[in-house]
Amino acid sequence: MLRLLRFWRLGANDLRLIWYALRHPERPIWLLPVAAVLAIYALDPANLALPVLGVIDDLLLLPLLLHIVVRFLPAPIRYDFDRKSFAGYRN
């Protein structure tokens, strides 16, 4: 259970990074369509039809896909996000 919590914490950070990258002026062209597909995939009504598969999907597959998208982001965007996210902790 602790691993699942860590996995979701990583997914939340990845989600914040994707949100930051969507507003970044140097975002890649592919990011907006991929983010839209992930949002549709997360809100898929098939989760209601197959609840067991929907839980597995939401708890495991979605954070994994978010992490894969983050890995493909350009390094300057990830660096800017890290620098800005830790700037609040230094003060």
Structure description:
With 91 residues, the chain is an all-alpha fold. It has five helices and no strands. The chain starts with a helix and ends with a helix.
Topology overview:
Elements (H helix, E strand, L loop, with lengths): L1 H22 L7 H12 L3 H4 L1 H21 L3 H16 L1
Helix pairs in contact: 1-4, 2-4
**End-to-end Cα distance:** 34 Å
Note the beta-strand portion.
under 5%
**Helical residue percent band:** over 70%
Described by strand count, sense and barrel closure, the largest sheet is:
none
Mean pLDDT score: 80
Overall structural class, as computed from helix and strand content, comes to mainly alpha
**What general form does the structure show?**
globular
Instruction: Give the total of beta strands.
Output: 0
The succession of helices and strands, N to C, reads HHHHH
Segments where pLDDT lies below 50 for 5+ residues? none
Cα radius of gyration in angstroms: 15 Å
Give the count of helical stretches. Answer: 5
Give the tags:
mainly alpha; globular; 0% strand
Brief sketch in words of this structure:
The chain has 91 residues and is an all-alpha fold. The chain has five helices and no strands.
